[in-house]
Amino acid sequence: MRTDRLVAILLMLQRREQVTAAAVARELEVSERTARRDLDALAMAGLPVYATQGRGGGWRLLGGARTDLSGLTAGEARALFLVAGPASAATPAVKAALRKLVRALPEPFRAQAEAAASSLVSDPQRWGSAPVEPQAPRWLDDLQDAVIRGVQVRLGYVDGTGAATERTVHPLGIVAKGPSWYLVAHTETGRRTFRIDRVASAVPTGDPVHRPADFDLAASWREIADEVDRRRTPLETQALCRPDGMYLLRMMLGRRLQVGGSTADGRVEVVIRGYNAYALAGELAGLVEWLEVTGPPQVREQLATIGAALARRYG
User: Fold this and answer.
1) 140 and 122 in contact (C-beta within 8 Å)?
2) Which residues form the HTH deoR-type domain (predicted)?
3) Do 17 and 62 fall into the same domain?
4) Range with the poorest average pLDDT among 46-60, 63-77, 233-247
5) 82 Cβ contact partners less than 8 Å away, ≥ 6 residues apart
6) SS3 readout for the chain
7) Whole-model pTM?
8) Domain closes at, from 63, 90, 118
9) Per-residue model confidence as pLDDT tens digits over 150-206
10) Mean pLDDT of 226-236
11) Distance CA 186, CA 314 (A)
């Protein structure tokens, strides 16, 4: 997301005397053209960013942005970077706050500000349905604060069966998924995900979190979401799709579609995951013009049953 890149560039400028578009491109894994466009956008938004030309030139913050804090507290600095991170798009009010922050953020606040910018992922798609706006549960702020400060939490939790447990966890990040919020944490049994609306208590222990050096919240959540999707759609169906139907197939099925190679007649081999044979056949019946299901037999049988029913009703 562009907001993430702009915040990352501001932090780079805070840490370094000067950056080049090439250095920004390498660090953020974007093209130099994109890096220059982002740097220009910061300057056009009114931030004290300027370019120096010629050999040894680059981009700098006016005056090094090392002025006094001007009334901004550590918590406010964290909050500003939190709302400008992956969880939301920057509003004009956030841009104004960031202008204040980039001129004032001192060294002691910088680590927590960076942690806040990467502590939250928002995934608005509800499992299997349309996006919704998540509502903040009771313990969200406490757990988010523990993530940012890097402290362990004694967590009281009630699972889906109603069983209550208590354990010490190492909070690593917060994710909003549809209407629900999740805590991603390390425990004695490995990485776990907890629905925050099922948290009964959250007491910081003061002990530091053991955070893997290579941990990335967004990548970790993608793994978790993929695993949940696989559990929810355990049946795999093999099929052949005409090339002109692939766009529709990708649009309908998203991550439940796995694309393979091409056959001699030009069709594309695909594997499609679904909940069960009946549900999957119902989804795929309308794609008969482009798609031929080759297995398993129970999905083909369900498609034949649906086809016969449609012919009786509309034939």
Assistant:
1) no
2) 2-67
3) yes
4) 63-77
5) 116, 117, 119, 120, 144, 148
6) CHHHHHHHHHHHHHHCCCECHHHHHHHHCCCHHHHHHHHHHHHHCCCCEEEECCCCCEEEEHHHHCCCCCCCCHHHHHHHHHHCCCCCCCCHHHHHHHHHHHHHCCHHHHHHHHHHHCCEEEECECCCCCECCCCCCCCHHHHHHHHHHCEEEEEEEECCCCCEEEEEEEEEEEEEECCEEEEEEEECCEEEEEEHHHEEEEEEEEEECCCCCCCCHHHHHHHHHHHHHHHHCCEEEEEEECHHHHHHHHHHHHHHEEEEEECCCCCEEEEEEECCHHHHHHHHHHHCCCEEEEECHHHHHHHHHHHHHHHHHHC
7) 0.49
8) 118
9) 899 999 999 888 999 999 999 998 887 777 889 999 998 888 999 999 999 999 998
10) 83
11) 56
Q: Which of 118, 149, 164 is the last residue of a domain?
A: 118
57 or 281, which is more confident? 281
Q: Are 180 and 197 in contact (CB under 8 A)?
A: yes
Between CA 150 and CA 148 the distance in angstroms is 5
One domain, residues 136 and 175: yes
pLDDT of residue 164: 93
Number of domains into which the chain is organized: 3
Does residue 247 carry a pLDDT above 60?
yes
Please report, for the domain that includes residue 67, its CATH number: 1.10.10.10
